[in-house]
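In response to reviewer comment 3 from the previous cycle, which asked for concrete evidence that the modeling workflow produces usable outputs, we include below a single protein chain processed end to end. The sequence was submitted unchanged, and the resulting structure tokens are shown without manual editing.
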Amino acid sequence: MGGPGDPPEGTPEGGPGGGEDEYRSVVFDESFVRAARLQEFSAQERIDDHAPAVRRRPPLRRGGLSRQALILVLLIAVAFGTAIYMGVRHPYQTPAGTPAAEPLRMTVIPLAPSGKVPGSTDTEALFARSPAAQYRIGAEGVPLPAARRTAHFSDGQVVDALTVAKDYIVRSALYPEVILGEEVRPVRVLIDPDQLDQFDRSFDHPVADGRHAPTGWLTRFDPGGVELADRGIRVQGSLSFGETDSATLEVTADHTVVYALRPAGSGAKAEASLFTVRRELHFRFDHDDLRLHQAQLLVSYVQAGPLSCADDSANRLRPLLAGQTAKEGGPAGTDPYATGNATALCGSLAPGALPKV
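The workflow returned the following structure tokens.
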């Protein structure tokens, strides 16, 4: 029996509250109809063919992968591509905890002569009368010592470290384009990346602060003042090595380099004089440095003369040439050929360090 508000016969079929209310939330849109597996024949088809009322539709063929599968494939491709790019861009990441290279500590000490600088038009005679008479010429004066493995570095790694140290000495003290010009790249490419900012700042804004003197990195003359009278630069010195810990190898270099110089543009008839530079360099290598053929330069201790103590020796060296004298001297004589370390900021060049007149 119907309720008080219902018709006597009950709610009409199809009306509000009827049996179809449970299907009100179902929407038969076009995609739903297309996806149906059964399809009703039209009236004309049933009349013409006497066919059943419905027919089975062939399953829909989905072109390609599902949306979720496609997204997954794209994500994998992006991740794989990123991994390849990072591997090419940074093939060897620095291990976590590896300390950055320390700044280079440098000391440049000019050595002033006590009298006139001796000279000669015969450079061979100058060398023969000096302590550099038996020095070798060029890179031959920087021989490698016998290499042997250490506790944590192989024979090959020790040879690599010694080779980089030798390359640095040759490029920074024997390359004409470096010692007489503005070229610094042959030296720069050997520097550990952590020290490149200090290196560049030294040449962009040179200052005698023990950190940013170009002459602490390499030998560099004033090109407007001098030129090489003999391209056979004399060298003698030593290399030694040892490991400081399981990840660090150090090389110490101590070399004396002697140049024959004359005034720039003066010609072969001008008198030449000898200029001596003694450098003690301390290199440090980690495994990345050895692999990349580069070094960390920790200490650079330079004595050079004959120079005037009044001139700025941080940016460029301005040698006193044949016949010139220093306007002022320095403390007690310092001999760059001796093994002792000078401690003065300006020294007096010992007479024995000059060619005999």
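Residues 334 and 341 are 9 Å apart (CA to CA). We consider this sufficient to address the reviewer's concern, and the full set will be provided in the supplementary archive.
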